[in-house]
Amino acid sequence: MATLNLWADDLEAASAWYTTVLGIEPYYVVPGGYVEFRVGDREDELGIIARSYSPRPQPESPGGVVVNWHVDDVRAAFARLLELGATEYEGVVERGNGEGFVTASVVDPFGNVLGIMQNPHYLEVLRR
């Protein structure tokens, strides 16, 4: 993955919300059109595009692909996202056979699905 793009009708509000969620300011801004954050250990790019630039109509309800961002504590991150105004898409789920894979997902206030995950494999790759 190089960049994950999300859509928002209100780009300024989305930029402010993700600034709060991520604890960082966007590093790249095109006023009224696009903001981009560098996130995590590998500085993956999270871009938010003004929905008016969408080449196709966006679906009325969230769904489709869920990209999971690694977090150290899914339960705490999930609770924080809900406190900040996201809504539950899928609650906390233990995956596998007790191997430490845990996921949850929310719908952000702008209609995008945001997945979070505790992922031992991700941590193993980082250690290498």
| Count of domains | 2
Oligomer state equals: single chain
Overall 3D geometry?
A: globular
| Largest sheet descriptor | 4 strands, mixed
Total beta strand runs? 8
Question: How are the strands of the largest sheet arranged?
Answer: 1-4-3-2
Question: What is the annotated CATH architecture of the largest domain?
Answer: Roll
- Give the termini separation: 19 Å
Number of helices: 3
N-to-C order of helices and strands: EHEEEEHEEEH
Into which percent range does the helicity of residues fall?
10-25%
**CATH homologous group name of the largest domain:** 2,3-Dihydroxybiphenyl 1,2-Dioxygenase, domain 1
**Class from secondary-structure proportions:** alpha/beta
Provide the residue-averaged pLDDT.
Answer: 93
Report the sheet-strand fraction. 35-45%
CATH topology of the largest domain: 2,3-Dihydroxybiphenyl 1,2-Dioxygenase, domain 1
Low-pLDDT segments, ≥5 res: none
Rg, nearest Å: 15 Å
Assigned CATH class of the largest domain: Alpha Beta
How would you describe this structure to a colleague?
The chain is of the alpha/beta class and 128 residues long. It folds into 2 domains: 1-53, 2,3-Dihydroxybiphenyl 1,2-Dioxygenase, domain 1, CATH 3.10.180; 65-128, 2,3-Dihydroxybiphenyl 1,2-Dioxygenase, domain 1 (Roll), CATH 3.10.180.10. Helices cover 23% and strands 37% of the residues. The chain has 3 helices and 8 strands. The strands form 2 sheets. A 4-stranded mixed sheet has the order 1-4-3-2, covered by helices on one side. A 4-stranded mixed sheet has the order 5-8-7-6, with helices on one face. A hairpin with a 3-residue loop joins strand 2 and strand 3 (34-39). The model has no long low-confidence stretch (mean pLDDT 93).
